[in-house]
Amino acid sequence: MDAYYLEATPKTSKLDFNPDAETFLISGRSIPENSIEFYKPLLDWLDKYVQNPLESTIFEIKLEYFNTSSSKCLVEIFRKLEKIKEDGKSITIDWYYEEEDEDMEESGEDFKQIIKVPFKMVEIK
Amino acid sequence: MLDTLSKFNNLKQSEELVLAYHGIITESLTNNLLTLAENKLAMVEYNSRVKKKVFNILVEVLQNIYHNQYELKNSEEPFQKIMIMVVKNPTAYEIISGNYINQSNIMQLEKRIKEINQLSNDELRAKYRIKLDEGVFSETGRAGLGIMDMVRKSGQPLDYGFKIINEDYAYFSLQVNINH
Hints:
Mean pLDDT of chain A: 95
Order of helices and strands of chain A: EEEHEHEHE
Structural class of chain A: alpha/beta
Largest sheet of chain A: 6 strands, mixed
Low-confidence stretches of chain A: none
Number of helices of chain B: 6
Strand content of chain B: 15-25%
Shape of chain A: globular
Oligomer: heterodimer
Distance between the termini of chain B: 24 Å
Mean pLDDT of chain B: 91
Helix content of chain A: 25-40%
Distance between the termini of chain A: 35 Å
Radius of gyration of chain B: 16 Å
Largest interface: A-B, 26 and 31 residues
Strand order of the largest sheet of chain A: 1-2-3-4-5-6
Largest sheet of chain B: 5 strands, antiparallel
Number of helices of chain A: 3
């Protein structure tokens, strides 16, 4: 399956989804005015990926900050991954946050609470 | 009652004013303002946690206004003008905004702010999660989480005010305080 890659901009995150390299990453900042427009192509790509995923997928989120409309897109993204687990394959979301960044830690906990995919909080020292 | 314009008149000579903008708002102006704010914050705030928090809340305040102004895009120019200020006083950052809204929106907006202002931290968190869990967008791509996010990240209730301008419009003033 083709990879999905987008370079980061001052307002949008880097999206690096490459099954061949076993890389699944969202990083940087995510503050576009219209988040759904930005994330729609990735959501479409994930629809295809979950049909035939790797045996094990580790999805890393390393965001500096994001706006509330991006948080709704993240929920949509995580929801798509629930299918991987239902089909008996392994999926983990690693949520990175900097030590003392309580806002980012709390956000991770919010997602962890509502998403039915193993969700790991990773503190960066 | 908060009044952004008179607040600006009191502050404009003050050293405490980090940033002020008065004018129309577009997507590229929003971007430019955020870049400017980020650069100014980098000069006045060394605590990266506080800097990040202020910037993050400013994004939410500005984008909230940007989406609200969509409703007013066909109105006369004076009503499309917004006001945004970032103030650093000895104890806190203040993000103060002012923008015109349709008078018909006052009741709903006031009800929403009042309701969120009086929630405890735990209640707010629970309400936020329920809204996040809904996961669906309004047609304009808004999340309905902005006001909750401002209260949650700042840890303080919002200060606000409405001023009736004429039979159609009102001026909405909003202030978020972030202790540093």
